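Lab notebook, design round three. We kept the backbone fixed and only want residue identities now. Task for the bench partner: fill in a sequence for the structure below.
Input structure tokens:
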């Protein structure tokens, strides 16, 4: 649309009704605050052709009006909020409840009780890093708000974070901004249930008590995991404007958007930790951000042989769809427990050996994996796959291919307690790892 405008031709987007708020928020975030658009009732992607035509024809008059009349179509400015807000009640708790009620209506929270970000609490959190309050860390996707240390501290205070957590939270915010595609903007704004996952490596994990065993669950053992993940997710909402129905257009949603933070179980891993694979020293502390898109429990009920354990994992990882676009078929994050990693490593498999073995055994019917997208005339299919257009559906079903493009698309992080039960998550190839030590006092 922008390119058409540059050619001197007026252009407007056609927006389905559910995406009106997204269009307003995105136009602000992407530097087009005066963007005008026309609204139609339904999304075009899965709409029968006759309905696509009829709802477009019904919008023709609106399209002409917006293209030919200088008007503000659906414009809405962001609410102005006082720099400091005060809440009073019968007692402190009543005042906190009033704060929560108002802030939840603004969508600033996650529906759990927020801690008040008092001046004292925010100042203490800022002092947990070696940075000044007004230092800019990055512009945070998807809405590209300016993530200063103070703003990060305000959201961390709302999550109940402690000063020693701040370097991890700051590094996580920075890592998200360094992911490809402008910090994974399109992924975060997708209608799919994609969400970040934070993985901490290095000495700081033990220092802070980040759990590396049953790390994705609730409870006392995961208090630090949950707090850091929550602080990051509040930054994502209130600095990155990742609000549901505005810049997060997920169709159904996922509990993974209560962002998880975990540590790798480096003590029980037979291999080098993940951050070493990313180019860091084992003695450095880092946080890695993955964009996940699901979760599957792959159980092994008694194998002790390395190849058998890896076959179970490979066969269990045959799920989901396969991309045929220019950017490959995605990746998988394997959260491998010590009861799988230990025997595999002890029996001579390096991490790369394990990834290669899994890749060569994780195969499935191409036709079943690509049923979700039509082949004929689909513009998003790469030229290398166009030969499929000449095959019958059964011929495509009979072709067996690897679930992913290469062994490098399988990322192994050793996490978990006892038992050979592995968590496998589809992810994008957008992975960013940032050092934490640079932000520590």
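Proposed sequence:
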């Amino acid at each position: 649309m922008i390119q058409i405008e540059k050619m001197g031709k007026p252009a407007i987007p056609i927006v389905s009704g559910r995406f009106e708020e997204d269009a307003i928020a995105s136009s602000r975030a992407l530097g087009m605050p005066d963007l005008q658009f026309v609204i139609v009732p339904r999304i075009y992607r899965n709409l029968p052709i006759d309905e696509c035509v009829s709802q477009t024809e019904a919008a023709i008059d609106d399209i002409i009006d917006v293209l030919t009349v200088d008007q503000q179509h659906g414009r809405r400015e962001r609410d102005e909020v006082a720099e400091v807000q005060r809440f009073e009640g019968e007692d402190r708790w009543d005042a906190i409840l009033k704060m929560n009620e108002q802030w939840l209506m603004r969508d600033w929270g996650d529906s759990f009780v927020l801690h008040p970000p008092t001046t004292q609490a925010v100042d203490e959190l800022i002092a947990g890093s070696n940075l000044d309050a007004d230092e800019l860390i990055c512009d945070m996707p998807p809405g590209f708000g300016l993530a200063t240390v103070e703003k990060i501290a305000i959201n961390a205070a709302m999550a109940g974070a402690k000063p020693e957590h701040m370097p991890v939270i700051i590094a996580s915010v920075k890592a998200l901004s360094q992911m490809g595609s402008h910090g994974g903007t399109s992924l975060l704004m997708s209608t799919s249930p994609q969400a970040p996952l934070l993985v901490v490596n290095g000495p700081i994990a033990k220092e802070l008590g980040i759990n590396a065993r049953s790390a994705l669950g609730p409870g006392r053992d995961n208090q630090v995991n949950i707090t850091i993940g929550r602080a990051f997710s509040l930054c994502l909402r209130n600095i990155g404007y990742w609000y549901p129905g505005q810049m997060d257009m997920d169709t159904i949603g996922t509990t993974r958007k209560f962002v998880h933070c975990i540590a790798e179980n480096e003590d029980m891993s037979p291999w080098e930790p993940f951050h070493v694979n990313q180019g860091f020293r084992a003695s450095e502390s880092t946080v890695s951000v993955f964009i996940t898109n699901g979760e599957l429990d792959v159980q092994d009920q008694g194998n002790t042989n390395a190849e058998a354990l890896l076959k179970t994992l490979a066969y269990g990882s045959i799920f989901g769809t396969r991309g045929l676009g220019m950017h490959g078929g995605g990746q998988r994050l394997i959260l491998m427990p010590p009861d799988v990693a230990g025997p595999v490593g002890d029996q001579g498999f390096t991490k790369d050996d394990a990834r290669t073995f899994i890749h060569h055994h994780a195969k499935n019917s191409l036709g079943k994996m690509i049923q979700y997208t039509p082949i004929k005339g689909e513009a998003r299919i790469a030229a290398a796959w166009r030969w499929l257009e000449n095959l019958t559906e059964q011929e495509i079903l009979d072709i067996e291919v690897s679930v992913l493009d290469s062994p490098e698309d399988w990322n192994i992080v050793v996490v978990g307690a006892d038992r050979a039960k592995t968590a496998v998550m589809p992810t994008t190839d957008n992975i960013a790892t940032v050092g934490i030590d640079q932000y520590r006092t």
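Keep this in mind before ordering anything: Confidence is low (pLDDT under 50) at residues 72-77.
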